[in-house]
Task: inverse folding
């Protein structure tokens, strides 16, 4: 018994700290629905955190609640948001490597027109997922129909309780396919295109530098680009024709 205990003690001195104590997964909040942007961000971040010996537990929440939970420390961070969200939620620290290119577009059933910026949407009732800040900031004073999920936004448009749905392009296409919704067109051009980033609660600021290095290596190796292309390829053939 003594020799066995000595052998275990000897082995433990050779193991790195991560092998001696398994840390709890980081609890990362995000939007409720599993859309393409979430798929890409989660795959990339799981790979990056794996290199740091950490795992993730991704928790879906309504958009605003997800941000509030990350900012108050109820969760350990936010899966992805646009740059600048830290100005509204000061406890969030941005990891400065882009995960996904986000494209906000307009989906329509009854109306067919060329999108000429946010102001061109003023005559219409606008459905979108509550908590997507770029939409909320650019549609103040308009006819807004915020909902908890993108599926709810499309259902409201189908029931003629809204005129347009604003969302990320791939997320919208994925939702239409998943729920078999027909007769929806994608208006052009996009309202906005921008990168999105991972955010940590500031209590995890010590992870910022090593996580940034891990993500930069995934970026350099082409892992982020390949992951984005693999997910996007699933939604190229869609039932929502584009209005040129």
Result:
């Amino acid at each position: 018994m003594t020799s066995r205990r000595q052998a275990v003690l000897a082995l433990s001195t050779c193991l790195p700290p991560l092998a001696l104590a398994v840390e709890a997964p980081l609890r990362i909040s995000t939007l409720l629905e599993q859309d393409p942007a979430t798929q890409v961000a989660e795959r990339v971040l799981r790979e990056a955190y794996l290199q740091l010996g950490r795992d993730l537990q991704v928790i879906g929440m309504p958009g605003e609640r997800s941000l509030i939970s990350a900012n108050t420390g109820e969760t350990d961070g936010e899966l992805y948001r646009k740059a600048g969200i830290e100005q509204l939620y000061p406890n969030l620290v941005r990891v400065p490597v882009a995960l996904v290119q986000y494209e906000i577009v307009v989906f329509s059933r009854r109306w067919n027109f060329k999108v000429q910026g946010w102001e061109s949407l003023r005559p219409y009732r606008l459905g979108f997922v509550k908590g997507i800040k770029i939409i909320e900031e650019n549609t103040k004073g308009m006819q807004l129909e915020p909902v908890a999920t993108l599926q709810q936004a499309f259902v409201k448009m189908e029931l003629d309780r809204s005129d347009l749905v604003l969302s990320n392009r791939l997320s919208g296409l994925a939702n239409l396919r998943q729920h078999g919704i027909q007769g929806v067109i994608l208006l052009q051009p996009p309202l906005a295109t921008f990168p999105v980033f991972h955010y940590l609660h500031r209590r995890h600021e010590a992870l910022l530098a090593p996580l940034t290095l891990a993500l930069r290596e995934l970026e350099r190796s082409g892992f982020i680009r390949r992951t984005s292309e693999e997910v996007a390829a699933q939604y190229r053939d869609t039932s929502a024709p584009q209005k040129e």
